[in-house]
Amino acid sequence: MAWRSSGTTNASLIANLSKNGLIQSTRIQEAMQRVDRAHYAPRNPYDDHPQPIGHRATISAPHMHANACETLLEYLKPGARVLDIGSGSGYLTAVLANLVGREGKVVGVDHIEPLVALAEGNMAKSEDGQRMMREGQVRFVKADGRKGWSEDAPYDAIHVGAAAAEHHQELEEQLKAPGRMFVPVEEGSVQHIYVVDKDEKGVVVKKKLYGVQYVPLTDAPSV
Ligand code: SAH
Description:
Elements: H1 10-19, H2 26-33, E1 51-54, E2 57-59, H3 62-72, E3 81-85, H4 91-100, E4 105-110, H5 113-123, H6 127-135, E5 138-142, E6 155-160, H7 169-173, E7 175-187, E8 190-198, E9 204-212
Parallel strand pairs: 3-4, 3-6, 4-5, 6-7
Antiparallel strand pairs: 1-2, 7-8, 8-9
Helix pairs in contact: 2-4
Bound molecules: S-adenosyl-L-homocysteine.
Protein name: Protein-L-isoaspartate O-methyltransferase
Organism: Periconia digitata
Family: Belongs to the methyltransferase superfamily. L-isoaspartyl/D-aspartyl protein methyltransferase family.
């Protein structure tokens, strides 16, 4: 199903993802329409495939980005504050920023400086992206995402775009009550997406969704 959603334009990719039920919300449809994946993926940008972006990083497949947004949607209201850990290409950061709007804020964190610069450069390819960075609707920072980004905490939603070796306590602490985190977690030789929900009283519940293959959330390379 996922691979059948490829398109020849940004619009046809999004239309196919919707037709195949991988995007269900019109809000996500509109947000993904506003971000041209060609600004973020070096080759065949409208294929529903992940692809390498250098520095051992990968831009995730569009259906994974769509699913992350669908999963977090009720916490991505206009004005919400969002943390995107392992922001890589910056594509999802840009889509999230469209979902939370001008009153909202999305912080993209990556531990590789050239990828922080890549994400900024990618966003700057559109006027809208330039405006979002100028006005602080989007900000990219270099940091170890395992510790989150306390400066702008707490967050309505946290997306983790790399597989964590464990459930990092600091990320849970940086979630609002209520708030939701989407995080791939390594368990032996396999990885699963977890949804971590914190309710109004601060009670945290973790739900395992499905198996995935992400780049590890790890130490920064020493070179
Ligand atoms: N959401 C991104 C995914 C990029 S791949 C996209 O679709 O483009 C995963 C990213 O996680 C890589 O850019 C990698 O540099 C980053 N990463 C890995 N470990 C990290 C850590 N400890 N802190 C911050 N970023 C990390």
